[in-house]
């Protein structure tokens, strides 16, 4: 039986129940059928959600590519109404250069602070807390910490020699976190139990 004969047979017998059921299997899904299928089938629903996410992400990327730079340019223009595009670009270059210079200065200050801290036996893991706006402020912070630490050590030694020393917390020292340590002043850090400070720095 060729294709034409099959078509003729189905057309002539489409009223029969068996033929109708067979033809129903070839019916194209409409919107209602697809919606019902997605609602009732978990795998189909997951697939649809995945496709929606893909299309959304792709659409967002396309929007960014086509519009974001324009929006930024318009906003810059609003803030600088009297500046030409060349002047705006020059300002951007200056800002980038200033950022690079600040990063270079901070790196230089950190290297200087590391050297001084090594000479003064100050834990290098604390260096970032002491870096100031310039070398003078950075060295002052280190000096202040050194003085406070020396005073603390001296007081501890004197207490022990007098026999009045009591272990912090009665043998059960308090616990502090690195975040808490970062928020402390150099004076507060200097007053901490050295063992507790060492435990925090070792993480």
From TrEMBL:
Residues 83-110 form a coiled coil. Keywords: Coiled coil. It comes from the Bacteria. Pfam families: DUF4355 (PF14265). InterPro entries: Gp46. This is DUF4355 domain-containing protein. It comes from Fictibacillus phosphorivorans.
């Amino acid at each position: 039986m060729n294709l034409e004969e099959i078509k003729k047979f189905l057309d002539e017998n489409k009223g029969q129940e068996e033929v109708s059921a067979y033809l129903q299997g070839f019916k194209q899904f409409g919107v209602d059928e697809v919606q019902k299928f997605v609602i009732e089938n978990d795998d189909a629903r997951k697939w649809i959600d995945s496709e929606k996410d893909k299309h959304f992400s792709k659409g967002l990327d396309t929007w960014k590519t086509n519009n974001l730079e324009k929006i930024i340019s318009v906003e810059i223009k609003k803030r600088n109404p009297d500046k030409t595009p060349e002047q705006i670009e020059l300002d951007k270059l200056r800002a980038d250069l200033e950022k690079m210079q600040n990063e270079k200065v901070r790196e230089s200050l950190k290297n200087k602070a590391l050297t001084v801290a090594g000479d003064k036996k100050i834990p290098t893991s604390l260096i970032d807390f002491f870096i100031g706006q310039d070398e003078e402020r950075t060295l002052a912070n280190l000096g202040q910490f050194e003085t406070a630490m020396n005073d603390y050590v001296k007081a501890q030694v004197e207490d022990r020699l007098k026999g009045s020393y009591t272990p912090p917390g009665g043998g059960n020292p308090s616990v502090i976190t690195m975040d808490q340590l970062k928020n402390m002043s150099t004076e507060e850090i200097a007053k901490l139990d050295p063992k507790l400070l060492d435990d925090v720095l070792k993480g």
